């Protein structure tokens, strides 16, 4: 009876190794929830998409140590 | 060659639970399972025993007495148990093994793999896995006698995989005929083929996935990060590496983590791009957008932060437990954790 947690990280294999269960692959190590190469509006849209995906995962039954891509 | 055998009150023939407070006692020659070990070819010179409760409640004194007798006997090897699934007996065997390990005395024990004695022994003993009850005696005795005889004689004992004892978490140097490069290539090919074996697994914490959120639209979400995000000026001096603390900062009605207000002090990655827009590390603006859209209920009014650089797993675990307790008290339903 824990608190569901989603881990957004660009290093999902390490997240799996230490036992994280809900993992969304982030954009990059230096900016997991952003992309400096995008225009500001597009970057926010990407960030909303990542979070939307993360919320989906929090509301889903998953197998232990599951990794979801941002666009799955 | 001298072999000492440790037993609890029951196996030493002193009595059952009514004798569990029995003080440490030394008995010449084999007792109980010791006779089976003798039949399997291991000589037993001395038996030392202690009541399970006595050992648990008066550990320091019991241990000192037993260790003194074992040292006085000049033991070349000590056999503990088998204790099977017994928690107190197994624990006593494990603690005795751990202490003997510090003096360099080899120990062979036998117990269930989930006995508290396995952890207590800290790798000091060769532990033969057994069934939970005494029915496993027949299988355990020859294995224990074989390993103990070789240890007493100074003959090498093989790896856990070869011999069947529980991995001890030790690295033992061995000479290989193959060159390092050949072995490295062989290892990577085996790994690619899915043949992954180790006696020293990284310390990991396996927790079953918590139940999913039933209704995100009414749930409270907390933002947590190890990306080292703090207010400008790092007012609480969050360490840039080796952090053993976590901090929390109010985000109240903030729409985003603006670069003039926040920065990352994380020493483990190039923070240039993240510091141009800290939402790239703690996605507050996007979380607000999801609240606006009715997709999620609410964002908890503080975010939690630390720097995850050179952080031991044990420290991370402690911080995670502390943050978990805080947010549980605060009525948070789910966590969005970001890592760099």
Count all strands of chain B and give the number.
Answer: 12
Largest protein interface, residues of each chain: A-B, 42 and 50 residues
Number of domains of chain A: 1
Count every helix of chain A, treating DSSP H or I runs of 4 or more residues as helices: 2
Radius of gyration of chain B: 28 Å
Task: Give the beta-strand count of chain A.
Answer: 3
Shape of chain B: elongated
**Mean pLDDT level of chain A:** 95
Query: Which class of secondary structure composition applies to the elements of chain B?
Result: alpha/beta
Largest sheet of chain B: 6 strands, mixed
User: How is the quaternary structure best described?
Assistant: heterodimer
Percent of residues in helices of chain B: 25-40%
Essential attributes:
heterodimer, A: 72 residues, alpha/beta, three-stranded parallel β-sheet, 3 strands, B: 340 residues, 2 domains, six-stranded mixed β-sheet, four-stranded mixed β-sheet, 19% strand, elongated
Draw up the topology in text.
The complex is a heterodimer of chains A (72) and B (340).
Chain A: E1 5-9, H1 12-17, E2 22-25, H2 40-58, E3 66-68
Parallel strand pairs in A: 1-2, 2-3
Chain B: E1 3-8, E2 25-28, H1 33-39, E3 46-50, H2 52-57, H3 59-73, E4 77-84, H4 87-102, E5 107-111, H5 116-120, E6 125-129, H6 137-153, H7 160-163, H8 180-192, E7 220-225, E8 229-231, E9 247-250, E10 262-264, H9 272-276, H10 284-292, E11 298-305, H11 313-329, E12 334-339
Parallel strand pairs in B: 1-3, 1-4, 4-5, 5-6, 7-11, 7-12
Antiparallel strand pairs in B: 2-3, 8-10, 9-11
How would you sum up this structure, described in words?
Chain A contains two helices and three strands; from the N terminus they run E-H-E-H-E. By secondary structure, chain A is of the alpha/beta class. A three-stranded parallel β-sheet of chain A has the order 1-2-3. Chain A is globular. Chain B is of the alpha/beta class and 340 residues long. Chain B folds into two domains: 161 residues; 123 residues, no CATH class. The model of chain B has no long low-confidence stretch (mean pLDDT 95). The interface between A and B is large, with 42 and 50 residues. Strand 1 of chain A pairs parallel with strand 12 of chain B.
């Amino acid at each position: 009876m824990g608190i569901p947690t989603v881990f957004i990280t660009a290093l999902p294999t390490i997240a799996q190794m230490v036992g994280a269960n809900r993992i969304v692959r982030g954009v990059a190590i230096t900016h997991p929830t952003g992309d400096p190469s995008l225009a500001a509006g597009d970057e926010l849209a990407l960030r909303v998409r990542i979070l939307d995906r993360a919320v989906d995962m929090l509301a889903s039954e998953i197998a232990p140590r599951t990794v979801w891509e941002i666009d799955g | 060659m001298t072999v000492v055998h440790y037993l609890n009150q029951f196996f030493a023939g002193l009595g059952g639970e009514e004798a569990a407070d029995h003080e440490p006692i030394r008995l010449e020659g084999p007792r109980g399972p010791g006779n089976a070990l003798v039949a399997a070819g291991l000589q037993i010179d001395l038996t030392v025993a202690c009541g399970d409760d006595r050992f648990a409640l008066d550990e320091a004194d019991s241990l000192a007495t037993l260790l003194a007798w074992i040292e006085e006997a000049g033991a070349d090897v000590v056999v503990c148990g088998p204790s099977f699934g017994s928690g107190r007996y197994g624990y006593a065997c494990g603690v005795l093994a751990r202490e003997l390990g510090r003096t360099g005395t080899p120990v062979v024990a036998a117990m269930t793999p989930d006995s508290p004695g396995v952890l207590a022994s800290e790798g000091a003993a060769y532990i033969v896995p057994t069934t939970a009850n005494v029915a496993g005696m027949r299988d355990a005795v020859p294995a224990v006698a074989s390993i103990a005889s070789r240890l007493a004689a100074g003959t090498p004992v093989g790896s856990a995989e070869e011999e069947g004892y529980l991995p001890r978490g030790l690295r033992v140097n061995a000479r290989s005929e193959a060159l390092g490069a050949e072995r490295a290539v062989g290892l990577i090919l085996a790994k690619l083929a899915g043949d992954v074996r180790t006696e020293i697994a990284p310390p990991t914490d396996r927790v079953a996935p918590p139940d999913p959120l039933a209704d995100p639209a009414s749930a409270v979400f907390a933002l947590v990060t190890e990306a080292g995000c703090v207010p400008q000026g790092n007012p609480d001096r969050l360490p840039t590496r080796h952090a053993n603390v976590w901090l929390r900062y109010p985000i109240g009605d903030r729409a985003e983590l603006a670069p003039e207000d926040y920065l990352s002090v994380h020493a483990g990655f190039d923070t240039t791009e993240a510091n141009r827009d800290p939402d790239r590390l703690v996605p507050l603006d996007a979380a607000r957008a999801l609240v606006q859209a009715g997709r999620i209920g609410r964002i908890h009014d503080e975010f939690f932060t630390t720097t995850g650089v050179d952080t031991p797993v044990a420290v991370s675990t402690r911080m995670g437990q502390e943050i978990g307790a805080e947010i549980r008290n605060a009525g948070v339903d789910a966590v969005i954790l970001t890592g760099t």
